Structures are given as structure tokens and as C-alpha cells.
Amino acid sequence: MPLFDTHAHIDLARFGDAAAQREAALRAQAADVCAVVVPGIEPATWASLLAVAERLGREVPAVCFHTALGIHPQVLPDLEASRDGEACAALVTWLDSSAVVAIGECGLDFTPEIEAGAPRTRQIAVLRAHLAQARRRGLPLLLHCLKAHAALLELLSEAPLPPSILHSWSGSPELALRFCKAGHYISFAGSITLPRARRPAESARAVPADRLLIETDSPDQTPFTRRPLRNEPAFLPDIAAAVAAARGDSFARIAELSTANARRVLRLT
Ligand SMILES: [Zn+2]
109 by DSSP, 3-state: which? Predict the structure, then answer.
């Protein structure tokens, strides 16, 4: 049963060189991963991301490497605030000329370290530029959200928005349901594999079957079962197994519904 990794930063230098990427793609194929979304995090990496996805698609055609472009809130502290307008304008230009399946990674991160370098008002302004493009192009967003769920829900609800993906869900089941009621999808990553992962497991149980997604978020968040290895899409079956265990469903059912959900939200069907 093929699996769909909705979030893997296989383009990042931390993932390894071209040979390492190719080997990881072959292991993904062997693990029955049929598709991977590679999200962008800052303008300087968009060109290489698109090139990596194109090359891997040629080298390992059994796995579809989809792309998304965006500006991650965690990179904002390292970017000049005075150049945010320029970065958001570049996003529009790049989206005009790229065949992406989503916009992101973008979102809000109100953890103290990030807020110290990128205040809330700045993060919200950059996210609004992504929301505007999602609305204009009818594309889903890949959303990062830490300590900012209420603010994010409010922003998403201001005007109709294509159903989007809350990546690497870390919130409560109640919050997950509020995002689902607003039309969005919840994606589970490595934290659900932790032996005492009470909250991710409760959220996985609460999310309706037609809103559930899985991802590796590689190279970060290696599943507990694979530590201390560097994370990669081939470890996605561990996430699917943990979600299946949390819900009392079979692995095959989680694989089937999460892949169908990914194809629906990313408009690949
Ligand atoms: Zn990410």
C-alpha cells in the first residue's frame, strides 16, 4: 500500500549530497513511498530545491517529488526585515513560473527564541503574503505552527482559503478538530512514535479519517524507532504504524486513507 510523505526537506544540505539524496530516494521507493512533498523555506534555496526535485524525479521515477515554495517563520530572524517585501515579491514571481503543489512552508512560530528575532507582527505580515497567493492560485498551504494556534486559526478564517495542511501537528485534539472544522488537514510526524506520546496519539484518534496525513519532516524528527539515524522518507512506515496503533486501525487502512487524503488536498487526483 503506497505511502505519501507530505513534508520532507530532502533538498537541505543537512540531508546530504546528490548521491545521498538519490540513495534516500531509492530507499523510499523500497519502503513503498510513492510521493514526497519538498517544501521551500527561504528564497535563497528555492532554485536548488526545484532542481533537486526534478533530478530525483528523473533518477527515481517510481517516487513523485512534488515541490512547494515559501518562507519559514524560523528563517525570518536570519533575514533582513527590511527585505521582507522583496522576498514576498520574489515568491509571487517564482510561483508564476513553477509547477508547485502547495505554498509553504510558512506559518507562525511564537516560541521565545523565534519571536526575539522575528516579532509577531512581522511573522503575520509574511504569512499574509502566502495566504494571499494561496487564495489567488487555489493552492493549499503547508503550515508550520508552534505556540501560535489561536492566532493562526484566526488568520486562516479571515476569508475563504483552499484546504491546507497543518504540518507536524503538536497541538491538542481539541485544536486539531477546530482546524479540521475550518476545512484543513492534520499531518503527523515523528513525535507520534515517542513511547509517551500521549497528546499526538490523542490528536491522531480525534482527527476525522478524511483529514489525516503523515510525513517524516526529514531530516529532522527521526522516528523513535530509527534513532540515532538521520531521518528520511523511507522511515514513513514507522509514522503510519504509530498512527495506526493510536487509532486502533490497520496499517493498510492508514496507508490507504492518508495517501488518498494527500492526493485530495494537493489536488493530484
Ligand atoms: Zn518543515
Answer: strand
Are 32 and 237 within 8 A, CB to CB? yes
Please report, as a single letter, which amino acid is at residue 213. L
Mean pLDDT across the chain: 97
**Dihedral (Cα; 83, 125, 39, 145), 10-degree rounding:** 130
Distance (angstroms) between ligand 1 centre and the Cα of 7 equals: 6
Task: Estimate to the nearest angstrom the gap between the alpha carbon of 175 and the chain centroid.
Answer: 18
C-beta of residue 86 within 8 angstroms of C-beta of residue 44: no
CATH class label, 3-265: alpha beta
Going from the Cα of 97 to the center of ligand 1, the distance in angstroms, rounded, reads 22
Q: Domain map of the chain by residue range? A: 3-265
CA of 141 to the centre of ligand 1 (A): 12
Residue range 253-269, pLDDT digits in tens: 999 999 999 999 999 98
Contacts of 50 (CB under 8 A, 6+ apart): 67, 98
Cell of 253: 487502512
For residue 264, the Cα-to-chain-centroid distance in whole angstroms is 15
Instruction: Calculate how far, in angstroms, residue 217's C-alpha sits from the geometric centre of ligand 1.
Output: 6
Cα of 11 vs centre of ligand 1, distance in Å, is: 11
pLDDT at 170 > cutoff 90: no
> 179: how many CB neighbours lie within 10 A of its CB?
25
- CA 188 to ligand 1 centroid distance, Å: 12
Neighbours of ion ligand 1 (CB under 5 A): 105
Residue 167 Cα to ligand 1 midpoint, Å, equals 8
Single-letter residue type at 71? I
